[in-house]
Each structure stands twice: as C-alpha cells, then as structure tokens.
Amino acid sequence: MSEAIMSQAANSLPSGQSGQATADLGFGVSLGVPRRVGDVSFWYADHGLPETRRPALPGNLQADVAIIGAGYTGLWTAYYLRKAAPQLRVVVLEKEFAGFGASGRNGGWCMGVMAWDQNRYAATHGREAVLDMVSALEGAVPEIARVCVAEGIDADLRQTEELMIAANPAQLERLEEEIAHREAWGEGHRIRALSAEEVRQRINVPGALGAMSVSGMLRVQPAKLVRGLAEAAERAGAEIYEDTEVLRYDPGQVRTPKGIVRAPIILRATEGFTATLPGHRRDWLPLNSAQIATVPLPPEAWSKIGWEGHELIGDLANSYCYCQRTREGRITVGGRGMPYRFGSGIDHNGEPDAVTIERLVAILHKHFPEAAKYPIDHAWCGVVAVPRDWCATVGLDRNTGLGWAGGYVGVGVSTSNLAGRTLADLALRDLGVGGETDLTALPWVDRRVRRWEPEPLRWLGVTAMYGLLTAADRHETGHEGRASRLARLGNWITGRS
Q1: Measured between alpha carbons, how far is 214 from 212 in angstroms, rounded to an integer?
Q2: What is the 3-state secondary structure (H, E, C) of the chain?
Q3: Residue 224 phi/psi, 5° resolution?
Q4: pTM here?
Q5: How far apart are the first and last CA of the chain?
Q6: Phi-psi region for residue 29, left (φ > 0), alpha (ψ -120 to 50) or beta?
Q7: Are 424 and 80 in contact (CB under 8 A)?
C-alpha cells in the first residue's frame, strides 16, 4: 500500500538549457555568482511568491486550538485536527505568509529517518520505544505521499533513495560506523552499502570510495508542498491568518497587534524562529543553513554526471552537504556556511553571506566538476532549530494547555508530519475528544532539556564547534588516515555527542 501511494505521488519532468558564466567573488577562487540572492528561496522563484496574502487576524476571537506558525508543523497539526474533529475551531497565526520559513527553503529531502541520538531517548523510555519511533518516522514518508494524492498536491514528488558518499578514508570509516549504527537501531532493511564502482554506476562524484544507500525517500519541491498543505488545511476548515505577528502567548491566550486569540490549547510551531518569541531566545538555537541552485543543466552535462535515479546526495564530511537534482535538471547544494548569528539572529529574507556562497559553490564544483561550466542561478538561506541536546521534541503541558514541536535539526520535511499528527493527538486528548494513542507514547513526547547558554557563550560554543569541524575536514582531506579527533571535540563542546 505504501509503495503504491508513493509511486502514484512521484513524478519528474527533467529538462535543461545551457549557459556559461563565472566570476571571481574576491576570495581567490573563480566561482559562479548567483543571479539572485535571497528573495526567500529558489523554490519560490520557481513556484512564485504569493501574489496576495491571506487576511490578517480580524480582531479578538475564541478558538479551541490556536497554532503559532504556518509552516509544515503548524499546517500538518491543523490539517489532522480538523480531519479528526471537524467541530473544533482551529486557528493558525503566521507573521509572514504560510511557508515563509524553513518549510519553503529546505533542501527538499523527505527522509523519514531518526537523525538524533537514539540512546538519549532510550535512557528515558527504553529501546523498544525508540524502535517504535524509528518505525513511525519511516511511515511519515508514505503518509505525506498519501495526503498529496488525496488532496491533489503537486509537489514534484519523486520516490528515490539517499546516497551518503564517502570521499576519503576517514569518511569511509564513518560510513561503516553509520551503517552499523543504523542497523542496530531498526533501519537495516533500508540500508545497503555500495562499493566505489556501484557509486560510479549511479553518479560520477570524483574520489568516491563507497556510499550508503537508504531507501524509502522522496524528493520534493518544498514551496509547492507547503502551499498545497496550507490549502488542504483550509479546505479541512482550519483558519489561517497571515501578516499576524505573535507578541506573546500565555495559558489561554495569544496576543497580536490585530487582536487576542483565546483558546484552551495553544501550540507553538515556530521551529527555527522560536528564538524571536519573547522569553524563548535561549530555548532552541537557530542554526543557519544555506543553499545554491544552478541553472538547468543540458543533456550533455547530465550524460557525464549520471544521477539518473535522482537520488538525494550527501557526503560524510564533518561539515556535510546535501544535494538534489530538481525536476527541471538543476543541481541544488546545501550546507552550513555561517552557522550561527550572534544573539540568535535570523537572516533577512533568506539572504546568505558571500563567504557562505563561496563555500557552497566550491562544494558543487568538487562533487560535480561538470557543473562548473554553468552559472549559479540562486542562493538563499534559512534557520533550523537545535535543542541543547540536539534531539527533537513534541509536547503539551496538561496544566497550562501550552504545547510545542520542533528541534528537528535539519530533517523537518518528514519529521514535521509525525510531529503534527502527534500534536493533534495530544490536543484531542486534552480537549476530551480523543485518548492516548501510539503516537502520544513515543519517547520524544514531553521531552524537555535545559536552555542554551547566554551570549557570548552561545556564539563562542557554536562557532568553535564549526571551526573544529572545518579543521577536521581539512585534515582528513590532506591525510590518508583515520577520522580527525577535532570533530569529536567540536561536537562535545555543544552537546551534539
């Protein structure tokens, strides 16, 4: 059933056009200069920004559930709430427009994997509960495909695999460790190790020594998915109010410049933008991630690159990258660049800095040398939420009626679906129209960790971590040996491992 749904939802329409343009950004390396920088993301340049916005909150109102944030998490929650209980009044409040944040800027990887430390969840709930969560996360991918089919959402879905490529001996060592780790935590049926020759048969990445293939994934166009989801939530009866900034929220009410929403259940679904809410600056750290997109490459370029399976491509570098072959034959490359802005700052309209663009273009040309002949069309960035223990969480306080979901650490496309279903179940339980479910028993429910340190300690820690990760990659590239210990030190500093 799941495979059939995913197959029905998946589609692709590769095409291409040629062109050449390079320039020097002033960093000593000849790089492509993006035609467009920021403007939220390439995905909106592709699909179009909203021509008009939904109305703002018209004034004070009473609801059963108020949701702060109209990204994937908030919209999935609203959708499932109204599907399960159409009698409920569900109100979604959004400062900008639905999908303005990470939901419309991400790399388009719908993965369904456990990307956090399983042992930390097992310490409180046991191994079997973690295995249940691993299974639930995997199931989020076909569930997203199912909803897209049912609601007529065309999000350029394509069923594919992830290829995590090892390009030096240290990365190959990490690859072997990662395969063993995932097999031990219930993902063995999705995992296959590929030799260097098997990698070359799929894609021409210079220096590839091997790879890990992970099945059961979807490539998506993020902006199309979030726009379609917002429309589906509205058809289900949810109310979405855009241009409505939340000034603060307390048990029973949400204050905005447009009016007050009173509701017994208030759910925060702001992910990387959580730090912008009063009193929440240190809850989750907004970690920056940036991307570039090439122009559509012509057939002669693709004949040299390969990549006919449209796999989601990443590497085992400590400062890893994530790549996609788009519907129309572009290559997108994402990575960290400037990892963190002092004071939990947020980017302006998705604009990355020049050094970050330089690094991403260098990664593009390293992994796909043929792409160096063609211009960079777009560069953009966004933020993802990082809890102090780097583990995602969903919860609803029965005493206050305040709930939350997020801290996905960069794997939110699929995770947000499971989080939305879980939040909906928790809200239905506390409103007396539902009970405990398999989802409400998962080990990430009601998980709380300590807040991040105040500045400048927060900035110093994250900056040190990524400096050490970069140094580790530099060392591993220049030495035919084991993984650098610098990466372990960097991860330890911020609690990542």
Answers
A1: 6
A2: CHHHHHHHHCCCCCCCCCCCCCEECCCCCEECCCCEECCCCHHHHHHCCCCCCCCCCCCCEECCEEEECCCHHHHHHHHHHHHHCCCCCEEEECCCCCCCCHHHCCCCEECCCCCCCHHHHHHHHCHHHHHHHHHHHHHHHHHHHHHHHHHCCCCCCEEEEEEEEECCHHHHHHHHHHHHHHHHCCCHHHEEEEEHHHHHHHECCCCCCEEEEEEEEEECCHHHHHHHHHHHHHHCCCEEECCCCCCEEECCEEEECCEEEECCEEEECCHHHHHHCCCCCCCCEEEEEEEEEECCCCHHHHHHHECCCCCEEEECCCCCCEEEECCCCCEEEEECCCCCCCCCCCCCCCCCCHHHHHHHHHHHHHHCHHHHHCCEEEEEEEEEEECCCCCCEEEECCCCCEEEEECCCCCHHHHHHHHHHHHHHHHHHHCCCCCCCCHHHCCCECCCCCCCCCCCHHHHHHHHHHHHHHHHHHHHHHCCCCCCHHHHHHHHHCCCC
A3: -65, -40
A4: 0.93
A5: 37
A6: beta
A7: yes
Bridge partners for 289 per DSSP: 382
Q: Where are the domains of the chain?
A: 2-452, 455-497
> What CATH architecture is 2-452?
3-Layer(bba) Sandwich (3.50)
* pLDDT tens, position by position, 8-44: 555 433 333 333 333 333 333 344 789 999 999 999 9
- How much of the chain, in percent, has pLDDT values that exceed 70? 93
C-beta of residue 175 within 8 angstroms of C-beta of residue 211 = yes
> With contact defined as beta carbons under 8 Å apart, do 22 and 320 qualify?
no
- The per-residue pLDDT for range 411-459, each reduced to its tens digit, is 999 999 999 999 999 999 999 999 999 999 999 999 999 999 999 999 9
The three-point CA angle 120-125-128 to 5° equals: 100
> CA 383 to CA 290: how far, in whole Å?
9
HSE at residue 41, side-chain half, CA atoms within 13 A, is: 27
For residue 255, the cross-strand partners are 248, 260
Rounded Cα–Cα distance for residues 191 and 274 (Å) = 34
Chain centre to alpha carbon of residue 133: 18
Tokens representing residue 149 in the block:
């089919």
CB atoms closer than 10 angstroms to residue 132 = 18
pLDDT in tens, 370-410: 999 999 999 999 999 999 999 999 999 999 999 999 999 99
Tokens of 439: 């989802």
